[in-house]
Write a structure and sequence with these properties.
Helix content is 43%, strand content 7%. It is mainly α. Strands 1-2 form a two-stranded antiparallel ribbon. Helix 2 crosses helix 3. The longest helix is centred in the N-terminal third of the chain and has 16 residues. The protein is elongated and about 70 Å long.
Length: 117
């Protein structure tokens, strides 16, 4: 094998580092959603909390993109995630404000026209 000159070695290393920095990486985005085991009353409280604290609740109304399925867990998930997104996606904005009813997921819960940000 032939020896590479220092300049050629530098160019190869430089180009390699540029290429590595442009490779796609897996998204680390997370969404705050309702736990399947959450109690109905807690989910109702979560919906009320989110709507009273600046979350746009229109998407879960009958004419909204996230109304169906018309279930408390689905509506709560959408609103909990909206609150989480509006407050910097911190653990505190998911778990503290929605105790014993929230979980983080790395699977995008969006469906049809209901887009989770």
């Amino acid at each position: 094998m032939a020896n590479m000159s220092p300049l050629l070695t530098f160019i190869v290393i430089l180009l390699s580092s540029i290429m590595i920095n442009h490779l796609p990486v897996a998204s680390s985005k997370q969404w705050c959603v309702s736990m399947q085991t959450a109690k109905y009353e807690q989910l109702e409280d979560n919906i009320g909390f989110a709507c009273a604290n600046g979350v746009d609740c229109r998407p879960i109304l009958p004419s909204g993109a996230c109304f169906k399925p018309n279930t408390t867990i689905s509506h709560a998930s959408y609103l909990m995630n909206s609150y989480y997104e509006q407050h910097g996606r911190t653990n505190n904005s998911c778990f503290f404000f929605f105790p014993n009813s929230a979980m983080l997921t790395s699977t995008d819960p969006s469906y049809n026209q209901c887009i989770y940000k």
